[in-house]
Amino acid sequence: MTTHRRGERAQTLARRQGIVAAGLVVFSSSGFHGASLRDVAERAGLSQAGLLHHFRSKEQLLKAVLAWRDDEARRQLGESVPHGLDLIRRLIARSSATPTRELVQLEVIVSAEGSAADHPVHGYVRERHASAFETVRRAFQLAMGRGAHADRAHDRPAGAVATRPKSGRHRGRPDAMPAAVADDRTVAGRKPVEPGNPAQCFRKPTVR
C-alpha cells in the first residue's frame, strides 16, 4: 500500500469519527426523530452530500454512534472481564467516572424512543437491556454463592447455628429481592439472554 493510500484511509477514518462525534451530540439532544442529517453535517463541517458519502442514512449513523458507545464501554471494562462482585464493582467504578453529558442523554433518549416497536433500534435496545439485566443478575447470584460458601467454611463456636430472619424485609438480604426482579420471566416477557461473556451486554447494533 502506497503512502498516498494510507493517508487517504487515515483521512477517511478521521472524517467518519468526526461525523460520529457530531452525531452523538445531535442525537443526544434531539433524539432520532428530532435530529437531522443537516444538523450533523454542519457540526461535522461537511455538506449533507459529504456526510451521505460515509453514512447512507440517519438510521445507519445512529447505529454507528451506538456501536462507538458500546466499544467504549467494553474498553473501559477491560480485556479481562471480571465476574461476580468484582464485575459489580467495575461497573460502579465505570459509572462513577464522570461520563459525558452526551452519553447520559443518549442512553436516556434512545432507551425511551427505542421502546417503540417501529423504532430502527428497537430490537437492539430490548436485547441490550435484557442482556445487561441478566449479566448483573448472574453477577449478584455468583457473589451470593461465594458468600454462602465462605460463610459455611468459616469456623463457628461449637453448637452455633446459622440463622436467618423470618421476614424478607431486611435490606441487602437475598430474600428481600422483589419477585419482579428475582423472576427471570419478567425480562422482556421471554427467557433471559445467555450472555456467555458480561461484555456482551454492550452489543453492537446490526448495520444493514
Throw out a few tags for this protein.
208 residues; mainly alpha; Tetracycline Repressor, domain 2; 8 helices; globular
Give an overview of the whole structure.
With 208 residues, the protein is mostly helical. It has one domain (3-201): Tetracycline Repressor, domain 2 (Orthogonal Bundle). 62% of the residues lie in helices and 0% in strands. The protein is built from 8 helices and no strands. Helix 1 packs across helix 2 (37-44), helix 1 packs across helix 6 (101-113) and helix 5 (84-95) crosses helix 7 (122-153). The protein is globular, with a radius of gyration of 22 Å. 19% of the residues are buried.
Write the layout of secondary structure elements.
Layout lengths: L2 H32 L2 H8 L3 H7 L3 H20 L6 H12 L5 H13 L8 H32 L25 H4 L26
CATH top level is: Mainly Alpha
Order of helices and strands: HHHHHHHH
Count the DSSP helices.
8
Q: What percent of the residues sit in helical stretches (DSSP H or I)? A: 55-70%
Question: Number of folding domains?
Answer: 1
Name the CATH superfamily classification.
Tetracycline Repressor, domain 2
Structural class: mainly alpha
Low-confidence blocks of residues: 161-202
Q: Give average pLDDT, whole number.
A: 75
The CATH topology, please? Tetracycline Repressor, domain 2
Radius of gyration: 22 Å
Number of strands: 0
> What is the rounded distance between the termini?
29 Å
Main beta-sheet annotation: none
Q: Which percent band covers the strand fraction?
A: under 5%
The best one-word shape is globular
Level-2 CATH architecture:
Orthogonal Bundle
